[in-house]
Design a protein that fits this description.
The structure holds two protein chains of two kinds. By secondary structure, chain A is an alpha+beta fold. Chain A has helices spanning 3-7, 40-48, 55-66, 72-84, and strands at 10-12, 17-21, 26-31, 34-38, 88-90. In chain A, strands 2-3-4 form a three-stranded antiparallel sheet. In chain A, a hairpin with a 4-residue loop joins strand 2 and strand 3. Chain B starts with 8 loop residues before the first strand and ends in a 13-residue tail after the last helix. The chains are: A alpha+beta, B alpha/beta. Chains A and B meet through strand 2 and strand 3 of A and loops of B.
């Protein structure tokens, strides 16, 4: 694992908006011309990408919240994909 | 509402007023006047009812939505309800202060249209000399902190300029560019013979699109909206009739798609007379083509019926006079010759005609009876 990837700070892209959809009972990511249906873990990860946490801190928080260990790889894979799709920017 | 789909998006056509006169406008030929438009309170109610139905995205369109001075009020209501908002604009009328007030009201994104890569294209296609305003609008949108999405409608006159059009959008800082091949409704259907490209033009353009998409990578997202007259199967229009989205016209009439007003044999309800939930779930027009039960052959027995839902009802009506028929674009449609004939006719038209000749033949989008009406 590259150390610099763990200290990077992910933030939801300006154009993206997360919301709970009470009508359908799902979590959504809203983009200019697109609506993405998120699974529970995707929504949890993106919800922590507010520009105040490093990737490592996101992982730690999720491990606490879900009471599981070793989420690093899962989170890194998701964030890599989210960044390629333009949902998340990393500083 | 057991099994009833929930719409994700509302297209709020707040006005038909527009400074441009695009020859492919999807608005109906009978444009509505200002006196027909819903009042602010009506739109606020529509937005609240839409949110209750499950809408999460509101696209403000028209006409030119910036013509309405109450746009900020409507955007703010969307923000209060947690709805994502998108402004679909020609860019004309977008000043820095207007952009600032829309952003502070909560606007999430903007889509700016261009007609081509230079002033001549806007002049020829939209009868407007204000291409300069579009570049300015692009800058204003970006400086307001909004993602800049762009859109260009493609046709015979601008397809050969595709490379240059993409260059313009890159230079202006677009994140995303929709290359929307003309869909033949409204004014575009009226001008079809002059807009339909040749197969060779399209093949060349697809090559340009693929090359530029690969070159641009993440820098700018390129989308190619298929020219359906050249496709073997119809488009899965709107994800099926009354499934994912709804359109409210300037006068409050509610449609399952932006061009359904053209189906003059159907009776569409208005938010002036009924609430949005009833119109969506109970009205005859929305129920008419929902699902697959309404289909006759060749759709009924077709393995693709859950993929393209029989194609577009509006296109079926526009070409055959019956909205329940298979979309004539489909190669299995008994009416497919109507599309084939249109292509043949378009190819016989003078592809090499100069700008002035084309200009004389084009029918520009103008309110009926206006001074320069066609």
């Amino acid at each position: 694992m590259d150390e610099s990837e763990l200290t990077a700070i992910p933030r939801l892209a300006t154009k993206a908006m997360l919301r709970h959809d009470s009508v359908r009972g799902v979590e959504l990511l809203l983009l200019p011309e697109r609506v993405v249906l998120l699974n529970k873990s995707g929504a949890a990860i993106l919800g922590l990408c507010d520009g105040s946490r490093t990737v490592r801190q996101v992982v730690t928080q999720l491990e606490q919240d879900f009471e599981v260990a070793d989420l690093t790889n899962d989170v890194m894979t998701f964030l890599h994909d989210a960044r390629e799709r333009g949902w998340v920017v990393v500083t | 509402m057991n099994g009833m789909p929930h719409p994700y998006a509302l297209l709020a056509e707040v006005t038909h007023q527009c400074p441009l006169h695009c020859v492919y406008c999807s608005n109906p030929l009978a444009l509505l006047g200002r006196q027909d438009e819903l009042a602010t309170e009506d739109w606020l109610r529509v937005i609240r009812d839409a949110a209750g139905l499950g809408v999460v995205q509101v696209h403000f369109s028209g006409g030119e939505p910036l013509v309405r001075g109450d746009l900020e009020t409507l955007v703010a209501e969307c923000r209060r309800l947690g709805l994502y908002t998108n402004l679909i604009t020609s860019g004309l009328g977008l000043t820095e202060s207007r952009a600032r007030s829309l952003v502070s009201a909560g606007l999430n994104s903007a889509q700016l249209s261009i007609q081509g890569d230079a002033a001549e294209s806007t002049n020829l296609v939209a009868a407007s000399k204000r291409f300069d305003k579009k570049e300015e609008a692009a800058r204003i949108i970006r400086e307001a902190g909004l993602p800049l999405n762009m859109n260009v409608v493609l046709h015979r006159m601008n397809l050969p300029r595709l490379d240059a059009i993409i260059d313009v959008c890159v230079a202006w800082g677009a994140e995303r560019l929709e290359l929307a091949n003309t869909q033949y409704y409204g004014w575009a259907l009226r001008n079809r013979d002059l807009l339909l490209p040749t197969k060779a033009q399209l093949e060349e353009a697809v090559g340009v699109y693929k090359r530029r998409k690969a070159e641009l990578g993440e820098r700018m997202e390129l989308l190619w909206i298929l020219p359906d007259y050249y496709e073997p199967y119809p488009k899965p229009c709107m994800g099926g009739w009354a499934q994912t989205a709804l359109t409210v016209a300037p006068d409050g009439t509610v449609y399952p798609c932006p061009v359904a007003a053209e189906i003059t044999t159907m009776n569409f309800s208005s938010v002036r007379d009924h609430d949005l939930a009833w119109i969506w779930s109970k009205s005859d027009a929305f129920e008419a083509f929902r699902g697959t039960e309404w289909m006759a052959d060749p759709c009924r027995s077709c393995p693709r019926k859950e993929m393209d839902f029989g194609g577009c009802r509006c296109q079926a009506f526009a070409l055959t006079g019956d909205p329940a028929r298979t979309d004539p674009v489909c190669m299995h449609s008994p009416d497919h010759h109507l599309v084939q004939d249109a292509l043949v006719r378009a190819h016989q038209a003078d592809v090499a005609a100069d700008g002035e000749t084309i200009r004389e033949e084009l029918v520009y989008r103008r309110p009926h009876g206006s001074a320069r009406g066609n």
